[in-house]
Each structure stands twice: as C-alpha cells, then as structure tokens.
Amino acid sequence: MNIYLIGLMGSGKSHIGRLLAERLGYLFLDLDDAIEKTADKSISSIFEQQGELKFREIEAAELRKTEALINTVIACGGGTPCFQDNMQWINDNGFSIFLNPSLNCITERLKSETEKRPILKGKDNAELVKTITELFTKRLTFYQQAKLKIESENELEILNKILLFIV
User: The CATH number of 3-161 is which of 3.40.50.300, 1.10.10.10, 3.30.420.360, 1.20.1250.20?
Assistant: First the structure.
C-alpha cells in the first residue's frame, strides 16, 4: 500500500514522510524531487520558464507514475491534490493523509524559504501570511477528502496517530 501525504507547503510532508517510511520499512518519495529529476530543472525554473499550467501537467504525470510503486510513502506538493483530478486519483490508488498544522506554524516554517518557493517568491511577512491563508482556504476542500486528517505540529504525535490508524 502506498501512503500519500498531502497538505499545504510547510506542513511537514517531506519530514514526516521520511520518518514514517523508516518506521514502516517503506520507501520514501518526495514528488517535488521526482519532478525536478524528470524535468532536469528546479520547480522554480519550470514555473518561470513554462508556467504553472505546464508544471501541473508534469506533476500529474509524475504522480501517476507512483502507481507502479509498492509500500512507498509519497510526499506530495502542496497543490498536487488540487489539480488534474489528482485527489481522486490519490484516494483510488493509495491511502491519503492530510497533515494540518496551524497556519501560524506553517508561516514560521516558511519565512526563511520564500525564495525557494515560486508561489511565495518576493513576499514580505504580511504578504506571506495573506498568501498562506488564501491558499489554505482555496485548497481545503481538496485536503479534506483525505482518508485521515491530522491536526498537530508534534512529529511524535503525528507518527503515532498514523501508525495507530494504518497498522
């Protein structure tokens, strides 16, 4: 069974994904890393050179490649579930988990990463809070379709909740 971690950027999908994979003896795949490897360029470059629409097409294709994987924890990009019927595909092909720490926590985590993230590039703190809040509001209906929802910032609590649910 593959496990798909979804949630807003900065929600801890990659970090928790690595820990969870290790605990379960699963493989780990960061979808953003897979996209960059296939495209042979950074996500920022894809956004800048080809636009978000092309990025979302590449992202959907990479997501669908995960169907061939077995016992893998996949950390999806923050927008992955919101495009190309990806959320339905995720639920049809694996077990989805929505990581949902507070927006304050996410904002703190992302303050030092605005230049690495195309949607946040060049934003000051006030704009960062506004963007994160708007993105969360816009994407929440997709995230809420996950089979398991976890509202916590404590990695041990998150891991324990997941393990209790799936093991």
Answer: 3.40.50.300
